[in-house]
Amino acid sequence: MFIEPRVGxxxxxxxxxxxxxxxxxxxxxxxxxxxxxxNRAKIAKQRVEIFKPAIDTRYHEENVVSHNANAxxxxxxxxxxxxxxxxxxxxxxxxxxxxFFDEGLVDVxxxxxxxxxxxIVAGLDLDYQAKxxxxxxxxxxxxxxxxxxHAVCMNCGDIASYSFRKAAxxxxxxxxxxxxxxxxxxxxxxxxxxxx
Length: 196
Ligand SMILES: [Zn+2]
Prior knowledge:
Bound molecules: zinc ion
Structural class: alpha/beta
Strand order of the largest sheet: 5-2-6-7-1-8
Order of helices and strands: EHEEEEHEHEHEEEEEH
CATH class of the domain at 16-149: Alpha Beta
Largest sheet: 6 strands, parallel
Shape: elongated
Helix content: 10-25%
């Protein structure tokens, strides 16, 4: 389990920023892990802001809601650069569904961390074709800490790293739940792609 190098240091002079990435397939618990870290920061009386792309409207408009309905208030934004203004002076900045943000996200995260914020980014590392997704690979490169979480293959029960799309749509941004996607291991993902 990820343990923070530091949680509640309010001394501004010693404030140091860094970037954490939480990545994995669908149903791997990325958002749960993001919420866990943010709640710990809140307990330490840190100022926390949470953002998600305005595109992700599956659940409640203003909440980062994970699949286990463990909700936390968040702000939907259009562009990654909106965060620079909205997150100024925050101790901890949480970002969910990071793969859907524009390419400016990497620079935004760097600026926030350079200015002393702890930045925690959660997102899909691979799209439904098993290709690196959006800014995630670049974020993993610049982050101090990368945590890859795993789901369970819904076909065979092995460890799963891939999001298999059961529907036929070729649209990259297709939001959905268990009826559209399932987590799969490498073997079952390849088998499923062959069948298509
Ligand atoms: Zn499998």
